[in-house]
TrEMBL record:
Gene Ontology biological-process entries: L-ascorbic acid biosynthetic process
Pfam families named in the record: ALO, FAD_binding_4, GULLO2-like_3rd
Catalysed transformations (reactions): L-gulono-1,4-lactone + O2 = L-ascorbate + H2O2 + H(+)
Leader sequence residues: 1-27
InterPro entries recorded: ALO_C, FAD-bd_PCMH, FAD-bd_PCMH-like_sf, FAD-bd_PCMH_sub1, FAD-bd_PCMH_sub2, FAD-linked_Oxidoreductases_BP, FAD_lactone_oxidase-like, GULLO2-like_C
GO molecular function: D-arabinono-1,4-lactone oxidase activity; FAD binding; L-gulonolactone oxidase activity
Protein name: L-gulonolactone oxidase
Keyword annotations: Ascorbate biosynthesis, Oxidoreductase, Signal
Organism the protein comes from: Ceratodon purpureus (Fire moss)
Length: 602
């Protein structure tokens, strides 16, 4: 087992796992390229990051050591060491694309267990229709291996640069109300985990959970707090083809159509660009394998460095000069180019000739794009790559609301649009506005996102500045949308996305939370796989949002709090705490020119 360790300046001598200190190094190697190292160690300790190299609270998390197991036995050894010495421990993957701090061990003196070297496909059983993989296996590698065997996962997320264990732990999904729905964890039939054990069992043991075991309902979406996921068995189907057609229309009747539309297409979703009054329907369905077509999905292919820097510079200028029209112009340009370019789809390996695009499930359903070595070899980079000075920094809000509530939500957003024409261009500039993806009702995971009824994952991205004290253009509208979705419509935040404030009180939104916590206590009674962040998300420590959620100056500017006083905004820059324009219960930071403005909340 490879180990990278750095002794922190501490009295806790048990942190030294071996006498030598090995500093980690990094290069763009492996099957798929790494945008940046998520673990960086020096003589003072190790810093844990993610693919974006920042956390919502801008506060780094630390570990005293990092281990890179290659076998299950080495995972057992690492967990046993943590248990024996009462050390916090967390597992994470090579890439770690989650915005939330679930990969961070509690405190500063814990162990980070990387699954980057534990990423093999163990077996493919065509007769049983199953595949078993190690936790760190990248989704794209799994998809490719299954395709070679004539098999496919029915539903996957739109981004394939994720580890299988990571995407399961945060409830990642595609879009569908067909079959068991679009959440990948719905197709898990067996899992093995390495969990703490008493000294009589050498401090660690392997548990196997199979279909029918109640504990599997906790393990399918676990936030990594039960133990280290070792292996996963998933249900697979014979390889098939999909037909994709994207149709753009005016959004006049979107609220009237969306419920029926959610049930019409097996892989359909809705992309709404409210500031431009447009909606793009994805008419995507399964077709026979014999259907002609070799289409591929090349979304997220990335851009050349000069293009990435120029786009960010334009947006920064619009922010600095508060030119809403400039953002709207950029959003219009992106939308006008979206469908004519094929929106990332190619009818063959090189060109787009028109919709529909027909291709194999393995080629159409998802894309690793700019995270691949081949993209970087062609000079293409993800626009969030932290190695790029002038990259795109962004926030994302993603929460699950009942499909039946979507018409009302859409009406509210339209009302907000009417209040501030052009004010939603900040949202529309990022990935084309709102994305509605559908998740079917299921009780197969305690922390699944559709326990009672069919849900829509409502997702939008928006501008994030380079510092935490500078307000953003129209950020009051973004915050109102965020609070509207979370509070008025009871949205359940995506476990791997969102700003910190989205998770306040989230435990009360999950009816099976107590059952999940019982399983957690059973397998990790001392909470060694928990942290202050996961405890807050699960409602254990009662301290509010995960991380250093501070109720103080500027806290509302980056979603660390909901403002209740002007000081939570930036009154010296004429940003004051105000009620929402449409959702009046919201509290947002709004720009007002009058120097004598006083808080309406006083």
């Amino acid at each position: 087992m490879e180990t990278s360790m750095c002794e922190r300046k501490s009295n806790v001598t048990s942190l030294i796992l071996v006498a030598a200190i090995f500093l980690s190094s990094w290069a763009l190697t492996g099957v798929h390229g790494d945008a940046a190292p998520i673990v960086v160690c020096d003589t003072t300790g190790c810093t844990i990051g993610n693919a974006y190299a920042y956390w919502p609270d801008r506060i780094p998390c630390h570990a005293a050591s990092v281990v890179y197991p290659k076998t299950e036995e080495e995972i057992i050894q690492a967990v046993a060491h943590a248990v024996k010495h009462n050390l916090k421990i967390k597992a994470g993957s090579r890439h770690s694309h989650s915005m939330t701090k679930l990969v961070c061990p509690g405190g500063d003196n814990g162990i980070f267990l990387s699954t980057s070297n534990y990423a093999s496909i163990i077996s493919i059983d065509k007769e049983a229709g199953t595949v078993t993989v190690q936790a760190g296996t990248q989704l794209q590698d799994l998809i490719d291996a299954l395709a070679e065997s004539g098999l496919a996962l029915t539903h996957v997320p739109y981004w394939s640069g994720l580890s299988v264990a990571g995407l399961l732990s945060t409830g990642a999904h595609g879009s569908s109300l067909f079959d068991r729905g679009s959440a990948v964890h719905e197709y898990v039939t067996e899992m093995t985990l390495v969990v703490p054990a008493p000294a009589s069992e050498n401090y660690a043991r392997v548990v196997t959970l199979r279909e029918g075991d109640e504990d599997l309902k906790a393990a399918r979406v676990s936030l990594g707090v039960l133990g280290v996921i070792s292996t996963i068995t998933l249900q697979v189907k014979p390889l098939f083809k999909r037909s994709v057609e994207l149709v753009m229309e005016d959004d006049d009747d979107l609220e009237e159509r969306i419920e029926a539309y959610s049930k019409e297409y097996e892989f359909g979703d809705v992309k709404w660009v409210p500031s431009l009054h447009k909606v793009i329907y994805r008419l995507e369905k399964r077709v026979p394998l014999s259907t002609p077509g070799n289409g591929v999905n090349t979304r997220f292919q990335g851009s050349v460095l000069s293009s990435i820097k120029a786009a960010r510079a334009q947006e920064n200028h619009a922010e600095t000069t508060k030119q809403r029209e400039a953002k709207c112009s950029l959003a219009t340009s992106r939308l006008n180019a979206y469908l004519p370019s094929g929106a990332g789809y190619l009818n063959n390996a090189t060109t787009f000739t028109g919709f529909p695009v027909i291709g194999l499930q393995s080629d159409i359903s998802t894309s690793i794009g700019c995270s691949s070595t081949s993209a970087e070899n062609r000079g293409l980079f993800c626009d969030w790559d932290p190695r790029i000075k002038g990259r795109r920094d962004f926030f994302e809000t993603a929460a699950f609301v009942p499909v039946r509530s979507c018409p009302s939500l859409i009406k509210d957003v339209k009302a907000l649009r009417k209040e501030v024409p052009g004010g939603l261009c900040n949202v529309d500039l990022y990935d084309g506005g709102f994305l509605f993806r559908f998740v079917k009702q299921s009780d197969r995971a305690y922390l699944g996102n559709a326990p009672h009824e069919d849900m829509a994952d409502v997702h939008f991205d928006y501008y994030r500045g380079y510092d935490a004290t500078t307000p953003k253009l129209d950020e009051d509208l973004v915050s109102e949308l965020e609070q509207m979705i979370l509070y008025k419509y009871g949205g359940k935040p995506h476990w791997g996305k969102n700003r910190n404030v989205a998770f306040e009180g989230v435990a009360t939104k999950y009816p099976e939370m107590e059952k999940f916590l019982e399983v957690k206590m059973k397998h990790d009674p001392h909470g060694l796989f928990s942290s202050e962040w996961s405890d807050a998300m699960l409602g254990i420590n009662k301290k509010g949002a995960p991380g250093a959620t501070k109720v103080g100056a500027y806290c509302a500017l980056e979603g660390l709090c909901v403002c209740s006083r002007d000081e939570h905004c930036a009154p010296e820059q004429n940003y004051f705490c105000r009620p929402g324009r449409v959702f009046s219960s919201a509290r947002v930071c709004r720009h007002e020119v009058a120097e004598s403005a006083q808080s309406l909340l006083a």
